[in-house]
Amino acid sequence: MKAIACLRFLRTGGGEALAAFLGPNGAMSSLSGCVAKMAVVSDGTHAAQVLVLAPPKELLASDMTDYDWLSRWNRLRVYHGPDESTELANASECVERTLAQGLIEHVRGAKPSVVTAILKEAFGKKLAVWHEIQKTRRIDAEAVNKLEVLEVRDLEDEERERILAVVPTTWMGVVKNSGSPIHYGVECQTGSVPNTRGVRKKQALAAGLGVGAVLGGVLMSGLALHLYGFRKNCLCVNMLESHNSTTTPDNCTWSEAVIRALSDASSTLDDNAPVSATTTQNSITDIMKEATCKLRWPNIDDVTTLISESELAALRVPMAVCKKAYKFVEGWSPSSNELDTRKLVTEDGRSNEVLTTPMMPATTDGWRKLDWGRCYGNGGKIVCSEMSSYPHLRCHYYEHPYRYDFPTVWEAIVRYLKPSKCSFQCNNQERPILGGALNVSETRELLLSRFGAEIAGSIPGIDTHGLSGEQLQKLGLQVEMLMTKSKPCSHWEMQAKPPYRAHVALPGCNCTSAKLSCFVETPLKGRTYWGSVGDLHTVEEALTQYYTAFKRPGHVVTDCGFECFQPVSDMTEQLLKYWKDNGLP
Prior knowledge:
Transmembrane segments: 204-228
Protein name: Transmembrane protein
Shape: elongated
Number of domains: 4
Number of helices: 18
Keywords: Membrane, Transmembrane, Transmembrane helix
Number of strands: 22
Radius of gyration: 27 Å
């Protein structure tokens, strides 16, 4: 079993890493000398059959632990059987998204027309359709997309006929003429390679392969998950038993999972039992299921499971903006240019106590005394100071357009930074940007910047590095105009009998941009607006995990609204045209 681990780690652009997909002239590579094989690819939970076209030696020698499938496989396409169930189709889609993510990441620098052709052949979809699988930098920093190649085998006759009906004409000759590896005269260290599918292997060899696969799969999974912060968010679950049991799985460490898996491996690969390629693979699959890590709801009693210190740092407010916010919280009046401790104001001169509040001691549960819901979904800034001879200021954004609600950011600041006092200020309702051409709220200004950097910037041919803030916002404005609100995926519901239950996204409800807002019955303030959180490239259940009112004791979510925005079909083409027409680098 060979692993394709964390495809995003290899950021080599559209050249060397894509030698197999791209020819020397930058066009799609030739299929001369290729054969067609069926690879079974898994992400640890889901599996898919993938048609692979590559030279025979590349299929045999490819070391997936070096993430080299992109430089060895000339073409690929996820295969869907004639009687595929909805469950299997969804599983294939999960694997397909990860394959597409890796492929898109590696075509940066290639011609957009070639990129579109590669993706069209591989997935039957253009680049624009794949925006839903693009990951933000924040998700890239935390997600572990690990693929494993469980098997590479010959095509069956029924599969071949079905494949010939759907693949491009240029593939047909390869698919028709592909047979067993023995026909190609390929040599390896042990001589000619026969077709071993379903043939019993020597016990010692099978045991070695089994333990090696377990060590590689389990330890690589454990190491990756350990390094990327999922240690406290995982449940070690026997996936087969979980469907038939109502009990909560016990928590265990990854070292315990490895010990359990190796123990199962030694008992499964018994010296006295006949072992075939099929039984060995089934045993390995069962063992990997035992050590599969399922994400669970972040623990609200441990803010580190909700937001890391580096994620908090990404929410830092520019110091010039932070200093202004601190002045307004302290009562500075823009009309008199003096401090007036009796009056709290905002940057645009509005004098009210709704949009800000005086500084207060920074305690973990200090957020409970504040009414940030009066920001009415626009988010804001938590303003903190470390009192010394001169206040050392720190400010962080919370809520929309980010996924972290007010209590999460407050608790994280207290935990990681340990300030003396904190307060908050709502984001401004409206101010001019783009040289006065457009009046937008501070929240929308932040959102446009994210649109430009993370959506447009994910398209091969658009490099947002080095753009000015104004250029990035203009680009983000183009992105905004090329998205529409999905009615089937959006809703506002009032629960007749609270609590409100979080939704699981319907098929096809991957959101390029999303926003979640709820009303909550709280112990101290009664029914209140909890605020809005937002994110890019997400689904409803993923965003809901960070709306902590669902899990806070004594808090009851009564009604919620979810908005899902998806791209128009030709978003990529229109953004590339805008990029070219405006002479951007």
